[in-house]
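Recall from the previous lesson that a structure prediction takes nothing but the amino acid sequence as input. Here we apply that procedure to Protein-L-isoaspartate O-methyltransferase from Hymenobacter fastidiosus. The sequence below is the only information supplied.
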Amino acid sequence: MSADSYRHRGQRRALVAELRRKGIVDERVLMALATVPRHLFFEPAFQEHAYQDKAFPIGEGQTISQPYTVAYQTALLSPRPQDRVLEIGTGSGYQCAVLLQLTPHVCSIEFNPVLFERTRRRLALLHQAAHLFCGDGSVGLPPHAPFDKILVTAGSPTIPRALLQQLRVGGALVIPVGTEQTQRMMRVTRESEAGFVSEEFEEFRFVPLLGQAGWGIKN
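The prediction returns the following tokens.
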């Protein structure tokens, strides 16, 4: 695995400055992105792309999210150090590593077993101590619920009821909802056992959320 060089750290500082210009103001989130070596989530041949503000393919029909998107979702989620967080869609592990800079209590579930194994090994090498699971994230992780925060990193046709029920009162779910082509970022806060408040934000384009409460299972 490559080193994290002075050059890489300078590239992260430049990326953070770019994200700040684009409207990301949460300093804790910006510090997390300045700390996590994004190039180590790329294959060596493609590491030159790591500090550009763009998504990039990682195989299995998935991408590593654009840094702006990671920062935007994380800022909306606003995890505190004591929060228990569930991430739906581990993918490359980059978003998970960013969350771990903000709270040590992160569970992450990946639908694709090939990506799960690859990312499990990568995060272990990087000493990132998330609790990783392989399975249908669209139905959450009931044995480990409730969670203070839930972050979905794939586009969903609806807000899965199972995820809402796994939130603590006072907790929040951040999820992109819409068609398979474009989604609106949403934050749903659980105000009481039966009461939820929804907010809508910018439009994005994510890979589809697969599974029982997503777009089904595709071959």
